[in-house]
Amino acid sequence: MKLICAGMTDVGSTRDHNEDDFYLSDGKEALCVVADGMGGHRSGEVASAMAIKAMVEYYRETMSDEASAPDPPVGEDGEEVDLIEYRLREAVLSANTAVFTAASESEMYQGMGTTIVLGYFTNDGAYFANIGDSRAYRFRDGKLEQRTEDHSLANEYVRMGILAAEDIEYFPYKNVITRACGLADEVEVDVHFEEMQVDDIFLFCSDGLSDMIRDGQIEQLFKEEDDLEKLCRRLIDVANENGGEDNITVILAKVTE
Hints:
This protein is an alpha+beta fold. It has helices at residues 43-61, 65-68, 83-105, 153-159, 207-210, 215-224, 228-241; strands spanning 2-10, 20-24, 31-38, 113-121, 126-131, 135-140, 143-146, 190-194, 201-205, 248-256.
């Protein structure tokens, strides 16, 4: 199977600078990353760029590991660890270290951090990792489904039964995240694998998209446009039409034969 990708970022309708960043594979690794930075003095854009740089460098420095490793790594419980999943988690942790160290050593960068959502694609399927509320979706057979779980106060309240999912958009603290890259010296990373099919399209986005467009409307836009570049542009345009209250970043990855 092959992968066709497109990506785009936009400052939005109300912000004066863009703290989002993204990365699309240039052929060395089938990797897609979206990072949504946060922090004063424009340090959010530093955090997102720094996180992506650290992850990409880690991947390139360890590319030979999968081929050269004589045995699969073993976890603390003695179970064999999926090497790709291990590298994915370590890449994100390297980003956390880079951002946290920079924030700790500079008053200007104090408190900066970033969300991360990424996909790594193989012939067997797709691996996803995330911290924060940037999301991954899958569009398959006309249906759009969120494939990552938000690390947000709103989502925690939904899980606890305090808040109904349909009321999240009215929740005053819906943008409060419970986990981010770079805010502490350690962070928990969600990683999972799933099989993929030809014609699957994966969407990776910052909350500047998902807060402005309901999932049903995103699904309808997928049905109306086949060209990935045009679909990226259309998603961003609609998010801006709906208010554009934040930076908007979109990556689309389509599986082909």
